[in-house]
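User: I want to check something. If I give you two sequences, will you return the structure for each one separately, not as a complex?

Assistant: Yes, each is folded on its own. Here is the first sequence with its structure:
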Amino acid sequence: MSLKQIANELGLSLTTVSRAMNGYPEVARATRDAVLAAAARLGYAPDPRARGLALGRADAVGLVFPITPSDLGDALFLAVAAALSTRLAQAGMDLLIVSTTAGDEVDAYRRAIRGRHIGAFVVPRTRVHDPRLQLLQDQGVPFVAYGRSAGLAQPYAWLDFDNARGARLATRRLLELGHRRIAYLGASAQYNFAALRFGGFAEAMAEAGLAADPALVLRDALDRRSGYGAMQRLLASPAPPSAVLIDNHLAGVGAVHAALQAGVRLGRDLSIIVYDGLGMDSVIRCAITAVEQPRPEQTGQLLAELALARLEGADPATLQRLCDPQLVPGDSDGPVGA
């Protein structure tokens, strides 16, 4: 039994039948139900590889990621990947996670492209200048960037958050609470999200007529251990900050633990705001004031929709989504000197 036989029986085009089987939203519900009923009645079982060849695409979406112990313990990343995988499975495709080392990412993409099993890529943690995106664009391989990057010659599909706005919201909140010695603890400036978030922080400080003290800016933390060490350095400085903005949740977990271990009372001795909070599996009792973004389940599903649209040949310039963050107050920040 083939899709063509189902199409002939129902008087539909092969493309319509294929789209109905793959759950595309533009197919009318009545048409989809009729196709699925005919497939069940006729005993049709889809062959993912055959379907991929018929549609001119491979049967998987790839995600090349330098796996480290901190990533395997990152509940937010795993939730996004799970939602991405679930939506792709509904379309008859797999999510293929390719493990690599940080220094071998570009070569890993080259190997994955040569393998021809991956029809499109989702590229996480984009850099300000990203050779991975440049390679995929040069090779004509469909991709969705999970974040943005500068310097690409042609438009490309991306999903990102308004990182600068989120950091401005957090910094302005701390300024309104009377804080002036505000530290910034975050990831390396090579990451686009970190560059944008630090830019938003610096802009809000400048609006208040302030400049961040270089001794209070630590931009080398993207896991729990480095966040813990960075917070220890801030607390040990001769003139410690009264507040800290942390630009990623992994460093945030370590930083909050370091503060609590040192006997700091959050929201009183030190105010802390963490981008993305501490994650769904946090055991910290204090409610952390956070800059929050769409739920990881929503993010993963949207990444999948964009990847599927690219595989269908949609113009990448039409596949660019910017999501707004929001500031969610907690108990970890408060007036200066409270």
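And separately, the second sequence with its own structure:
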Amino acid sequence: MAWDEWEQLKADANGRSSSRMQLNEAPSGKGGAGQGDLTVSQKDLAAVGDSAFKLFEDLGRYGRDAWSSSQTAAKDLTSQEFALGSALHTVQDRWEKSLTTLLDACAHISNHMDFTQKAHAGDEYHITSTVSSIATLDKGFDEGAKR
């Protein structure tokens, strides 16, 4: 985009009374001054990770319940020269690929939430220890100044 074109777009936006252009700024009145819309707590991260893990377990346990009977039906229909047999096999194959993808995604989410919790806990410990060290250092300087 050329500079002249950008200037023209800004002028056009300023000329409209129903809307105004905002660059790199949240609309005023939402979320308070200086606060973003997104917040997360350790409890939130744990809940997301737990839900992903439970879904992973349940899908792993029950997601293949129909596999054996579907494969048997597909073979029987195919041996009897029904086109539905190969179609059922194709559906079963696609189900397995989709199930595997979903299981991988759930495991990734669960593992990432665990990692995030541990990383934030480590960051919190580091920040707390650094700040407390600075306070101790300041106290030492204050005591030295009184002498």
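Because they were folded independently, the notes below concern the second chain alone. The mean pLDDT is 79. Residues 24 and 124 are 29 Å apart (CA to CA).
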